[in-house]
Amino acid sequence: MSKPLKIGLAGLGTVGTGVLDLLRENGALLEKRCGRAIEVTAVSARSRKARRGGHDMSAYAWFDDPVEMARSGDIDVLVELIGGEDGPAKAAVEAALAAGRHVVTANKALLAHHGVELARMAEKSGAALNFEAAVAGAIPIVKTMRESLAGNRAARVFGILNGTCNYILTKMEDEERDFADVLKEAQELGYAEADPSFDVGGFDAAHKLAILTSLAFGVEINFADVYVEGIENVTLNDIRYARGLGYRIKLLGVAVDTGDGVEQRVHPTLVPLGSPIAEVNGVFNAVAVRGDFAGDIMLSGRGAGAHPTASSVVGDIADIARGVIVPPLGVPADRLAPSRRARMRAHEGGYYVAMELADKPGEVAAVARIFAGAGISIESIVQKGRAISRVVPLREGEMVRETAPFILITHDTLESAMRGALERIERDGHCAGRPRMIRIERF
Amino acid sequence: MSKPLKIGLAGLGTVGTGVLDLLRENGALLEKRCGRAIEVTAVSARSRKARRGGHDMSAYAWFDDPVEMARSGDIDVLVELIGGEDGPAKAAVEAALAAGRHVVTANKALLAHHGVELARMAEKSGAALNFEAAVAGAIPIVKTMRESLAGNRAARVFGILNGTCNYILTKMEDEERDFADVLKEAQELGYAEADPSFDVGGFDAAHKLAILTSLAFGVEINFADVYVEGIENVTLNDIRYARGLGYRIKLLGVAVDTGDGVEQRVHPTLVPLGSPIAEVNGVFNAVAVRGDFAGDIMLSGRGAGAHPTASSVVGDIADIARGVIVPPLGVPADRLAPSRRARMRAHEGGYYVAMELADKPGEVAAVARIFAGAGISIESIVQKGRAISRVVPLREGEMVRETAPFILITHDTLESAMRGALERIERDGHCAGRPRMIRIERF
């Protein structure tokens, strides 16, 4: 039996104590599986407490400074659970890699911004840089893409990458409640942060998508190229109309190799009811990859939480204990291609469009003419009568008049054409407020 | 750059030529990812042909005998795609492992019967024995369980493990057709074998389940302990009634650690409509694992086919090229626990029961009394009137009389109680023919 693998744990929040829970509960099993013990020898956190989550901290060497711990000769692996794209997390990871120590991290922001340089550092010293927990919690998507699908050229990857958003959208639909109302409850339950904008604004999903894009297409991570829209503007009515039209609304991250660059986008998306991705509800995440040989593969599971995240962190540690070390991004960092952005205006797909149409003769025809003029072909229309119409001010200073919801679904259309048509409809005063659109994916 | 990894390919059927397709198409990409080339240097098959699937065989050293190829010093890895639990497949794999060469195989029968001894041989010589393609085609479930979930104690694993059966059940439901009719079409399309009993009888799924059970619970593979029922007796009416009751019928393989041994079973199963497993249709497979830390994880994808299977075979080869070698069954073979069987009669779950009830007063009450006497609690009943009743001979020599379908769903019940009640109902002559039951899983 080999020597124990010594772990330095930086960050003792819920995931950190989740890792300690796991090692306590399943330590003997892990030792059997890995052929050596896995032992936490050192810990570091912002504030020093005697106990955390039922664990006695006096069992471990304490470091106020995670960088100092990363450099310490008494650990083999730095487990970074501090978070944040810069600051102590980055400094500690760099220090560990520079010293030739392995790193396991759950930090998506760090990887989305600095993943390529960190991978390069790891490869230089032959160390592992594992980050299964950074993308989609317990779901083993990183190893699947990096190892299992090594023989495939990916055509696309997409997924439900943020559990908070999926929880909110599921609740809105199941309980017929408004976004604001459900968000408030999610905050009270601890499923959403006090400042929810990082999650509901789509940025967390975008970090994860940027990492997946690199793994899928062998390109450098390029977070700046991700087009991001959050779920803040999705209304209960959108969810109802979508359902009536045979769709469900999900916040998706999608990366597609268009042949003309990689399109990376995070936005609310209508997906067909009954499609597997539409049935991933609540706090669950899912990632689907299309490989040229494997075909479509989908993985789903818990996207967050102390124990599911700890499962991925420890899976990464187990790989190191067994001597499994592969290039962090699937190909050596120096052989990653530069990321080339496919412009969002060149995106082509179906659209759901919702507007408050002025309720007078000829408006539907006028709007239909604008769409036709832009080469946009309409698949179906839902027009609700005055029964549910509202009185809405059209523009400042203008007379208040009646409007009625006007909803439609288009066939595949160029994003630029759609944007142009909606601007025209607004400019010509056919509707109250701005027409809104949600993209459709017919997987 | 290291030396190329030399492959000897035994078996040149659809999967074998699929592997050659993949290496031709994505060879350069693989070399970039693995840091070395992967080259087929030798091949072996039953009959020698100049070309196979568009590939020129003269490029490779030819071996009539795969065992001789396995022993040849000119290969690093034996890729065994011959199939069959014994015979040349087993002999070639044993010869390769004895010579310290790595093995990649798609052979579920071989592993289900001899997996533990082969794992032991591989570990002895430090060779890899990889078999991702043996379970669920392109789905990376073996690596997920063996590596990603290393930190978890599994509570259960279940899945749709046979694409032929799933295709047939999906077609029966979608097109309202009988089993025999759809099976015939599947045979014509090449989705089912001329002798379909291995697939539709559940044995193929049972082989895969036996392997998953070992990976999940760290026990020796024990195929003989799998309880197996096929889909031959599932009727279109069963599918219709199940749907009306909120369920869909799938052939599932299920392994559960009951605390009193491992229950391994393959049988048609009612799963709730809208549950993720119910939405895995057609030739797709899916496997779901519950880990004590990860929670529920589900992987789905193509369960068969030349290219999806080749994707898994090559993923396994890529691991070897990168130096990734772990114990084939997740823990060293000598540390696997003996498999302890939980008796099927001790299974507890819900049941769907269908019978042709004699259509006369008092029969429903009599049947209900038998269930009540056995401690079986009924959740819902569907009784169809004479509108769809049929005239059926009750027993030989007895008068022909009217019967009507009588369908019910039970709450959780002991299998032994259910079997006893159904025997009693039959013995007492309450129904024509035998009452049938299908187990329910409410995942």
How would you describe the shape of chain A? elongated
The CATH topology of the largest domain in chain A comes to Dihydrodipicolinate Reductase, domain 2
- Overall radius of gyration of chain A: 24 Å
- Just give the CATH class of the largest domain in chain A: Alpha Beta
Total domain modules of chain A: 3
Structural class of chain A: alpha/beta
Secondary-structure arrangement, i.e. CATH architecture of the largest domain in chain A: 2-Layer Sandwich
**DSSP strand (E) fraction of chain A?**
25-35%
Give the fraction of residues assigned to helices of chain A: 25-40%
Number of helices of chain A: 13
Largest sheet of chain A: 12 strands, mixed
Greatest chain-chain contact: A-B, 63 and 63 residues
Oligomeric form: homodimer
